[in-house]
Design brief:
227 residues, mainly beta, outer membrane lipoprotein receptor (LolB), chain A, 2 helices, globular
Length: 227
């Protein structure tokens, strides 16, 4: 009897740890702002799950200004356990355009980064991975899952083109647009760069991503949930 109760308890704890706070079909809009606070553009994050359990995440950003277009699109496909399968990146910054795809092969323990279109003229890079690698967009949703389960996100290797080492410190609770939010201070270390950034997540059951502050060459830009 004791063993049965223990198994039931462990099963319940395991289910709670893997629970998904974000709903299927979630769509959240954001504003991108200059360091001065002036609105630069808008973005959107979408989460959809197929009947088979596969998650499809999408982030779009249109922060164009006269004479300089900034249009980014990221699409990620992941398992029900939020292990990445594919990441697609399409970027336009002024006249510069870039398209690439990362395919994750957990069986082979590698991720392959392709410059699009694939073919003899496209670049190809292989990156070793573990049993459950994550791209940056999928990792954002894993953070929400961790917080909903009552734990801080563990240090991780996140793929966003190259592999980056990411770790977080808890920065306390703040009010973001009238909502209680947990502030996470992240350190991002890549092959040739290191930076700190901040993320805020609502303290409600959905652990909604509310705001980010990211340092760039021109200053610290922010992404804030739209009213």
């Amino acid at each position: 009897m004791r063993n049965s109760l223990l198994l039931i308890l462990l099963a319940a704890l395991s289910a709670a740890a893997q629970s998904t706070p974000f709903p299927n079909g979630e769509t959240v809009s954001y504003t991108a702002n200059w360091p001065s606070g002036l609105a630069l553009g808008e973005g959107q994050i979408i989460a959809r799950q197929t009947p088979s359990g596969v998650w499809n995440f999408e982030f779009t950003l249109d922060a164009s200004i006269p004479g300089f277009a900034v249009k980014d699109q990221f699409r990620s496909q992941a398992t029900a356990n939020l292990c990445s399968d594919v990441l697609e990146k399409r970027l336009q910054h002024g006249k510069r355009k870039a398209e690439e795809e990362i395919e994750f092969d957990r069986g082979e323990g590698k991720a392959t980064r392709f410059t699009l279109p694939k073919g003899p003229k496209g670049g190809e890079t292989t990156i070793p991975i573990g049993s459950c690698a994550r791209d940056a967009l999928t990792f954002l949703f894993q953070i929400r899952r961790d917080l909903a389960a009552g734990r801080m996100p563990a240090p991780a290797t996140v793929l966003f083109g190259a592999p980056y080492q990411v770790k977080f410190d808890y920065g306390g609770t703040q009010k973001i647009q009238g909502q209680d939010a947990d502030r996470l201070v992240g350190t991002l270390k890549g092959p040739a760069s290191e930076a700190k950034f901040e993320l805020w997540f609502a303290r409600g059951p959905l652990r909604t991503f509310l705001q980010a502050r990211v340092p760039l060459a021109m200053g610290t830009f922010s992404l804030e949930i739209a009213h």
